[in-house]
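Fig. S4 source data, part A: sequence.
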Amino acid sequence: MAGEEYTLEPTFSFSPLPSKKLSFLQDKDTLQLLMKWSMLGRISAQCFSFDQCFQPHNSEEFALCFFRDPNVVSSLRRIEVGAWVPLDKPVMRVDVEPVPCTKVSMELFDPIYSCGILRPSGHVVKCFHDVYPDYDELRQMLQEEDSEHYYVVGREERGELLFRLFKHLCLGGELCQYEDAIQPYISTTKHIYKDLISVQKDPETKKISVVSTVLKVLAYDESGRCYPGEREEEQTFAYLIVDPFKRHMTLFHHRYGVGNFNL
């Protein structure tokens, strides 16, 4: 969805929820893996409440209000020159991409186990690459559309938040030490996904469904793109995960680069 500049009075206001801590950022094993993947300190999740009814059709207005809200601006940080710094210029516009989020199990990944990407042990099959000497079939499936395994996971499923999280973790940061086996990626994806989304159970059918709305966002100030980073990079991303019933929202963000450090 292309962003436009709004001059209307804000219709949403936001308040940080500093006491709401997501468990994946408190879990020692997860933090060790994020460090190994060169993402620790560069990945963050901040929680906020908001005051009006959210509807998907006003996602762009919602996101713009978020990045302009004084309570958000005072707590929002981006990584610059090896440090977390505040946004120093007002956000003028946003780009918002709705992200499908319907999965309530890990079945999406089942085809990966039986197509030749993995050995029976769960170890990833290595392969030759002109640029990357330590390459494997999993990263090839994730990144290269001409890979014979690219559509083992279908196009719609690849758009799901669950798959996007998995891909982000598998590709990691600039100094990523890649896993030899798939299980750490799967288990960490599951942990983070359960932390981020909200679900509900139908009292009659007992069926569980996702109630969260997910928006991938880019913010621009007068100089151009400012959040989550100035340059386009697949591993620099920001998602707003909205629970419309609790009126809670989580900003899930990563900035690609060198160095692990804390906010």
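Fig. S4 source data, part B ends here. The chain is about 25% helix and 25% strand.
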